[in-house]
Design a protein that fits this description.
Elements (H helix, E strand, L loop, with lengths): L26 E7 L18 E7 L2 E12 L5 H4 E7 L7 E4 H4 L10 E2 L3 E5 L4 E6 L3 E3 L3 E7 L13 E9 L9 E9 L25 E7 L1 E13 L10 E5 L8 E2 L3 H4 L10 E2 L3 E6 L6 E8 L5 E3 L2 E6 L10 E11 L11 H4 L5 H19 L3 H10 L1 H5 L2 H12 L3
Parallel strand pairs: 5-12
Antiparallel strand pairs: 1-11, 2-10, 3-8, 3-9, 3-11, 4-5, 4-10, 6-7, 7-8, 12-22, 13-21, 14-19, 14-20, 14-22, 15-16, 15-21, 17-18, 18-19
Helix pairs in contact: 5-6, 5-8
């Protein structure tokens, strides 16, 4: 028996899956959320232009278990204008610094509903989506989570509303000394520089024997485990772009890297050249704008069963086309655990450099949609607001012409 009279540590009941759910522990469950402290139903916060809101301030030892956020009828750019940052144990630099949408797997500011082990984006009505993250985020001397608004308008569209939950645990004892801290980092490259005499050609005979020109999603020093990546490619060049291999350099690797793949689709669990959207618990191509591979694509890979373990350093890279011959725009979010906490995290690109460039058709639909929303809000026409929100669903998916058609039909009936 154990010292406190409980079951032996090797008892079969403790070896069952999810045994933590029925074993008593000295844990206190907590939640920080946007609930209305007056007791009314204004259960959201407003984050004004240029403001930074504290979503969570926790003291002592604990672990975040779930983060949820939702907007209603936001501008698409808000998914990049809202910057999520997480600080552990009193650090003055964030271990997480990622645009809100990208952190939750919303790639290119085009919303797709999907479910997976660590991230899920769930539907509301039309234009509202619930963003969920299930990464465990331990801390020993406190946690701070903030949200910055880089835009010129309040977050949350004309309603100026952000709903959020942060679920976490608090512990009576400090964490063991070998517990790693959660990190997430956004990176981008616009555009990648094509290498060699055959730019934007899918199959060719060039060689890549050093990985020096690869796109880099994560470059960090310390000891830890990489547990996931969201990769975003804007396939401007056209054609199949995914002959690029992943190359992961561990603990000072020269050449070859410790981990070398065979193509982009293999990293994310697909068959050859995925042209339809899919998501599974661990892998997905959850955004495929065009069956001919052109335009934005987004994909994820969770390394729950096979984390990339490093003792000194990790450099996660991928070719942009075979031997880096494609000129496309790349962005990514890497998720990993590490000791020590990363200091001096590279700053994000400027707001203008972060924002997607969806073109004139998007701007025309935006100019149709948001004045209609603002009018319905000002006049208290809740039924009309709901109808507009449902009609606007294709707008949030990036289907501009479909959105225009539906909005014109709905607005013409008022």
């Amino acid at each position: 028996m154990t010292a406190n009279g409980g079951a032996p540590r090797d008892h079969p009941v403790l070896q069952r899956p999810f045994a933590n759910l029925y074993r008593s522990t000295a844990t206190r469950s907590r939640r920080e959320s946007s609930w209305d402290r007056t007791g009314a139903n204004r259960d959201w916060i407003t984050v004004g232009p240029g403001e930074t809101a504290d979503l969570l301030r926790a003291e002592g030892s604990g672990c975040i278990t779930h983060v949820y956020c939702a907007f209603l009828l936001p501008r698409l750019t808000e998914y990049r204008d809202a910057i999520l940052r997480c600080y552990w144990d009193g650090a003055d630099t964030p271990s997480v610094e990622v645009p809100l949408g990208d952190f939750f797997g919303i790639t290119h500011c085009r919303v797709r509903t999907f479910g997976s082990t660590f991230l899920a984006v769930n539907p509301g009505f039309g234009s509202s989506h619930g963003m969920n993250a299930y990464f465990a985020m331990p801390f020993d001397r406190g946690a701070l989570i903030t949200l910055e608004n880089r835009s010129a308008q309040p977050l949350g569209g004309p309603l100026q509303a952000l709903w959020y939950h942060i679920d976490y645990e608090l512990y009576d004892e400090p964490l063991p000394t070998d517990i790693l801290r959660f990190h997430a980092r956004y990176s981008q490259e616009r555009r990648t520089v094509p290498i060699g005499p055959e730019p934007n050609k899918t199959l060719h005979d060039a060689l890549n024997l050093d990985g020096a020109e690869n796109y880099v999603a994560l470059d960090t020093s310390g000891r830890g485990r990489m547990v996931g990546i969201v990769l975003e490619i804007d396939n401007i060049a056209g054609g199949w772009y995914g002959e690029g291999d992943d190359m992961v350099f561990l603990d000072g690797d020269a050449w070859p890297p410790s981990i070398h793949g065979t193509g982009t689709e293999e990293v994310f669990g697909g068959g050859a050249c995925p042209s339809v959207e899919y998501s599974t618990p661990y892998t997905g191509f959850h955004l495929v704008e065009s069956t001919d591979y052109g335009g934005p694509v987004g994909m994820f890979r969770w390394m729950l069963h096979d984390p990339v373990v490093f003792q000194k350093s990790l450099r996660w890279t991928i070719e942009h086309g075979h031997a880096n011959n494609f000129a496309n725009s790349y962005a990514s979010v890497a998720y990993w655990y590490q000791d020590p906490i990363v200091r001096g995290t590279p700053s994000l690109p400027s707001r203008d450099d972060l924002l997607p460039r969806p073109g004139q058709e998007y701007e025309e639909v935006e100019q149709l949609l948001f004045p209609a929303i603002e009018s319905a809000v000002e006049e208290g026409r809740s039924t009309d607001l709901r109808r507009i929100g449902i009609a606007a669903e294709p707008f949030y998916e990036g289907a501009w012409s479909v959105a225009r058609e539906r909005l014109n039909e709905v607005l013409g009936s008022f």
